[in-house]
Automatic annotation (TrEMBL):
Name of the protein described by the UniProt record: Staufen double-stranded RNA binding protein 2
Polar residues compositional bias, start-end: 51-62
BP GO terms, sorted: anterograde dendritic transport of messenger ribonucleoprotein complex; germ cell development; intracellular mRNA localization; protein localization to synapse
CC terms in the record's Gene Ontology section: cytoplasmic stress granule; dendrite cytoplasm; neuronal cell body; plasma membrane
Superkingdom as given in the UniProt entry: Eukaryota
Example GO molecular function: double-stranded RNA binding
Name of the encoding gene: STAU2
Region (Disordered): 38-62
Xref: PANTHER family: DOUBLE-STRANDED RNA-BINDING PROTEIN STAUFEN HOMOLOG 2 (PTHR46054:SF1), MATERNAL EFFECT PROTEIN STAUFEN (PTHR46054)
UniProt organism field: Catagonus wagneri (Chacoan peccary)
Amino acid sequence: MLQINQMFSVQLSLGEQTWESEGSSIKKAQQAVANKALAESTLPKPVQKPPKSNVNNNPGSITPTVELNGLAMKRGEPAIYRPLDPKPFPNYRANYNFRGMYNQSG
């Protein structure tokens, strides 16, 4: 069975800044680019609010994507994620021999 390993590339634009990243899924690529933007952005960071005393509050469960979207929303700017053309893994060689697909009998 041939498994196609595909990398997804996304571009994030926030204000005048742009970042790109890749991942094995769209979600992972978005989280990677959001993490990169949080680390490299020159935009001012919002003031941290004291945590609410909520029993269901789990600060470690916030993904970089959610954190960046919250930051963008507070600034009144959209965080725009754009999927880029998918790229195969570097060592992947496509199999263009499809003869067997047409000779199958049902």
